[in-house]
Amino acid sequence: MVSFALNGVGVSSGIAIGRAQLVSHATLEVAHYTISPSKVDVEIERFTNAVKEVQKELEGLHVAMTGGDVPGEFGAFLDVHWMILSDSTLSEAPKRLILEQRCNAEWALTQQLAVLVEQFEQIEDPYLRERKSDIVQVGERILKRLMGMRGTLRAPIAEEQTILVAHDLSPADVIQFKSHHYGAFLTDVGGATSHTAIVARSLNVPAVVATHNARQLIRDTEMLIVDGDSGVVIVNPDRAVLSEFRLKQSQLDLERQKLKRLRSKRAETIDGEHVELYANIELPGDLAQTLENGATGVGLFRSEFLFLNRKGLPSEDEQFEAYRAVAQGMHGRPVTIRTFDLGADKHLEGLGGLSRVAPNPALGLRAVRFCLAEPRLFLTQLRAILRASHYGRVRILVPMLASSSEIDQTLQMIEQAKEHLREQGVPFDSSIEIGGMIEIPAAILAMDAFLSKLDFLSIGTNDLIQYTLAVDRADEAVAHLYDPLHPAIIRLLALAIGTAKKARKPIAVCGEMAGEVDLTRLLLGLGLRHFSMHPAHLLAVKQRVLTTEVAALKGLVERIRRADGPEKIAALVDRLNAL
Amino acid sequence: MLIRAVSITNPLGLHARACARIVNIASRFRSRISLVVRGRRASARSIVAVMLLTAAVGATVRLEIDGPDEAEAMREIAALFHDGLGERS
Questions:
Q1: ipTM higher than 0.95?
Q2: Would you say residue A309 has pLDDT above 70?
Q3: Fold of the domain built from segment(s) A4-239
């Protein structure tokens, strides 16, 4: 047996080791023959029956799913397939071809599929073009029925993990993954947004797609290693490779188990420094993941996400309901709601002021500048946040403040909103904490106003890096210049954290740096004790905190603060992580 | 016949599941319901036809509804579009 490797795109992480099970690709094996005029009716009936059987098959899967722990995507996918099946372009048009050309049902269906696929091929948008796979998958189900094959997959071969190898998988195929516990799957086609990828991630099963010809190169029951992170597939691995991956696999498993156990553990360094680990969320729906990963608060609720992609502005009541849901869901733990950060890259439809394209949007009317220019919109949001503060521990975070006059104006607006509510007798937390985002270098270099007027601070490193280095990360031509380890960034962070500490004001980092486990020790060494990040990173960062002794970081961090280049800093950070 | 222009506001545009929602609602009415995008017309009852319209976010869709329950149908389908085809974010 020859050992070889294939490269694809890893769309769902993890390592699986097992034996291949090939799934046939019906359209490749279709017979083509003419039928006698007297048999046309029989042939049409054969086609109609196949469609009905597939309909039943899909309905059966739908029933089997309800009540189980199958992710919600499945139901939606099945509905789509059921509708495609019932669509006259698929269920009626082939009958006409049988009648007119006197061809067999399989051939009639294959021709009609080709016509439809051709139409989809002309679509320019790659995401929408990929939707042709839904049509093909439904067509193949009918074909398999016509050819006497059961549409369902075989059960896995034995106790050994089975890795499904297919040209493409339909959502209905993938559902059986759930009941049969396949180890991984591998497809010739597909991309990060294909059904296969979405469902694999929700099932936590490794998957590699776009291998081009895995289905042809791999034979049934061959031994496979699938690495869903790197997208590498190794066929017939030798003993050394196999044991290497077995080791890697068990390390990953162990890692995952260990992390889960950390959920309710207090985040504390070896030398007893307590660290707060909060979550960044975008919608109330993110709460479940936040609590699952043991967050002790919400450090950044990006309120603008609630209202993107819609016409018109959300009403005060609508906003209130969303904020209250999060406040109550966190059961008294802090919930930091950032006021609308609209402008530059996030647009809200229906706002006259935003529809014009600013000459330099990142430096234009955005975030708090925009809110202060639209006082009615701002007051509506502030009232909604204040009302929610009655139901939990809510804090207000104001983005993109640069000067003390902006802070004053914002505080005045909040006072005004409070006054409205008092007049109406609506309850709210009158001592609600108000904080500011530190994301403009000016805010760090002149932090006194922030310290004297605000209750807490939160550093948004993404924007801070963009504004300090004058690099737009979304612009491919300069994206490589975006570097969190630039000496200027390290020094600004050190200055901000140090100044806040001296003034005894709480300061957090809520940008991507906070969730980067390789930077945890650097930030701890710079004095940071408060991190807010995507919930998926919480446990890994907590683990790093638990294994860190802050006192031991001092020497290296001092050298990092004085280092004159990103390469030197990166090398020193590696040494920090090796401690 | 009622005619009204609506726009696509959900980021993925008329993808499969969004199309399914349209077909679902359209099938409840007796009126003839068509969607027209850049001169291409599709019956709202055919998911394949609607998928082939390939309207992306920002595109304008003309709704043409003709029949006994056209007012009710227009209200529900226009509301679906306003709601970002059931996808807020």
A1: no
A2: no
A3: Glucose Oxidase; domain 1 (3.50.30)
